[in-house]
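Hi R.,

Here's the chain you asked about this morning:
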Amino acid sequence: MDPQLSNGFTFRRCLILCAPALLLAVVVRALFIASIPEAFYGADSNSYFDSAVQLWTKHHFVFGEKRRGLYPLILCLAPLFPGNTAQFIALLQHALGLVTIISAGWITGHVTRFRNIWVPVVTCLCAILPQMLWYEHELIADSMVLTAFAFAAALGFPTRDLRGWRLFQFFLAAMLIVALKPHGRPLWLGLVLAAALITGNPLRWGWKNFAVLAATVALMLATGSSQQGGWLFLSSALPLIKTEGNSWPEYRQTLRPVVERLHEDWRHYPWQQLQYKKALGSKGESKIFGEAWPKLVRD
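And here is the predicted structure, written out as tokens:
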């Protein structure tokens, strides 16, 4: 990046250029909330919401391995605020969406020459982006992860300032990504590699930055679950499973009728995978795999 691009681009100027997008974002989000006051309850919301349900209905705290992160804790605290949990989370996530827009404007202003044009254009597109609006209005961690990622990336600009206290803040923001959702690990790794390329010599980062990195690694080891890996791989490769073999014969025998049926039209499996994915992971009775498979899953 040309160092001259950053000259004269202050945070105040960034806010001025982002003003049209922020106004548009507030209007769109206000209309959205007025029409649907409560956040959507999607397919993954239940696993995020489980800790809050256990805490407030059964009065004991259960921090599930699958969603062991900061987002379930936020859901646990939501009932302390006005409105119900779904209403509070919708307001919170839409408010954080404005931070995402400002972060995008700050990044754009540092990587373009005609920032008076590009900052309003890019941020206005962010303000009405359907994906952002949707995830901000759903009880899942993705919109907060996006905010944390955009904020962390924004802290890297101007790149000449990414050292000392700014670098420390950068790593804290990167840590927030994996704290909110363990699946944010690749984003964190990308940010750390970017910091290494920008600063030139990671050995000069200092003890406080290495302390944050060590804490982040410890957090990643203590959060999330690896149990989904095998299940997702199995659902992705189901038509390719060998139904004969000495290892795990009871599993192969149970899957054999479904695998043989898929062989007849395996090219269309990518468009049918979702129904098999849910059935493979279910511990209840399955119409696709019968009664034997759920018993094996529960083992």
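One quick note: The two ends are 55 Å apart (CA to CA).

Cheers,
M.
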